[in-house]
Amino acid sequence: MAYDIDMIKKVYSQMADRVNKAREVVGKPLTLSEKILYSHLWDGEPSKAYQRGKDYVEFAPDRIACQDATAQMALLQFMQAGKKQVAVPTTVHCDHLIQAKMGAAIDLQSANKSSSEVFDFLESVSNKYGIGFWKPGAGIIHQVVLENYAFPGGMMIGTDSHTVNAGGLGMVAIGVGGADAVDVMAGMAWELKFPKLIGVKLTGKLSGWTAAKDVILKVAGILTVKGGTGAIIEYFGEGAKSMSCTGKGTICNMGAEVGATTSTFGYDDSMERYLKATNRTDVAEAANAVREHLTGDDEVYANPEQYFDEVIEINLSELRPHLNGPFTPDLATPISEMAVKAKKEDWPINVDWGLIGSCTNSSYEDLTRAASIAKQAVDKKVKPKSDFGINPGSEQIRFTAERDGLLQIFEDLDATIFTNACGPCIGQWDRSDRKGEEKNTIVHSFNRNFSKRADGNPNTHAFVGSPEMVAAIAISGRLDFDPTRDKLINEDGEEVMLDEPQGIELPTKGFAVEDAGYVAPKEDGSSVEVKVAEDSERLQLLTPFEPWDGENLTGVKLLIKAFGKCTTDHISMAGPWLRYRGHLDNISNNCLIGAINAYNKKTNFVKNQLSGEYDGVPAVQREYKKAGVPTIVVGDHNYGEGSSREHAAMEPRHLGVKVVLVKSFARIHETNLKKQGMLGITFANEADYDLIQEDDTFNFIDLKDFAPDRQLTIEVVHADGSKDTIKANHTYNEPQIEWYRKGSALNLIKEQNAA
User: Fold this and answer.
1) Rounded mean pLDDT of the chain?
2) 320 labelled catalytic
3) According to the UniProt entry, what is the EC number of this protein (predicted)?
4) Catalytic-residue membership of 160
């Protein structure tokens, strides 16, 4: 039986009435996304039609999922909310704090030792507040959610940007910051601007070397890293129905890389098969009873241009394998064109590592397709030219794959089987062949490939592909290898070609596992004591942020003007810094150290206007804070792209930064700034970014009149005494302005609970 089956049945029992009412108030047929959104309104039955991309709407998500790196701060905040238990089903998954180095057993043992304090904290706080806990080694959060919790037509939020993976099972699953999750844990409504809708019509059928991963690699090339911002991507068509459930999950997972709010597919036979294979026949039967409401209306898919804000059509029969990268996930190159492009761009041709796994591609089907290529290398006597690393998605996947001989195939190629965890995908990789200043190339089946992402080395060129393509390229050892036409030389000096990959959607013997790694919480956790040592370097109880005094901000100094791409990895790096995710002051020492200073094109080297000296960003900001000087961060387009990590908002807030002024924001980061009581605003005229000089001082002359839909006026005073007056836009509504007044959304929650 599925977890929380009564909750799922309740959602389905209300769905027909709510969808029918929504269709009535909207006055036209509905997409799947609209059906799910309107059936999860906080007020219950729909009573009005919402404007896409404009109206803020309150929703009631069905469940929450948190990974260990973000769960720390989320639960530290929840502890301040004054609640005895979480209001909706919630789980915590320990997958980020396990470094890949030697192999699964040794690495897991090392993580349990080095991060025991954090794991113990998360397990105890979960036990106290009624939260399901998945132990280290149990698996990657999004694969575990897909196997155990995701259900068609549901709505969930998660403190990780790849929560969207659950769209593969027909959910609207959205990545958020911890403060958003705390709202829902505390029994409050969750607010989201009603998304725009992008429809992707899939025709034809995948075959040969082309995989589900290539669909989203193609879409990323079309939409770019910001083309999906503020929108849900809904996939439909006969091509969508022809793909496996986990293949759909892969596509939805990497929708985060185009900035989409989430992605989803309508309920179909592949989802039913997957639910039954993962021991959730009860969910499948309940979903079948409301099947017509778990996909878009026929009229929508017949005439998508009338119902979506944008429509993309992809013929799967014509789609070819891609590699995306380096340094950005939207630089899409068909494999057939890589040789010419790599030479033109001077990308390193020799491939050092092929990495298979991550929350994007670690399903049973993924492993079988990659293993079918690896087995050919063994059988055809081709010695791989690159190192292999494998991260199974869950203990259930690992146990089943080992039983079926899949892992042995990789081990026969001297691959390292890492723990069922994120590992290199999120920078948790102690790479054995460190390259230093030497440019080098790796290929992986992950989702992100920002500079320094996997191994901390800015000279590593990372390319994203399907597991089977990663396997083929790693075997060849060359970035320009096209397995559809290129030959390899085996150990006998013979020319051989790799045959097309073969995959198995679901294990023929069924899934199996001895210990999945789940720990259920106590029914009454009131007696559980959660301890945080005062001298801990890993955990720190939170102190509320100071409320706004209601006055204009004046004398604001520029901390940094960030040049170009500034992701949450640039603002708050992962890798070794993950150990401090539960200690706000310690992790703040990585604040903006990856951002490029527009004035000297260096990282972590900015001018202190108080002394005239240059130093690291956190050090300079701590000097401003000590002197009581407010500061501002200026940024470029899509500022805060990438992970949902709210540390990227909390760190500058903790250090005393008052304002972030950019050309445009990534959705999650903008919300995180608002939740933490920061002023996140955009240039009304993007060209004004160029007016900002290194020694500038900013005066917000009408902040006292802060109101929805009202521009802010900023006086920019230059070092020579000259001034420019610029306008800034914002998207704050009245409740969000109240967060700003109170100092943070959490401050407001505490105040309301105390009343």
Assistant:
1) 96
2) no
3) 4.2.1.3
4) yes
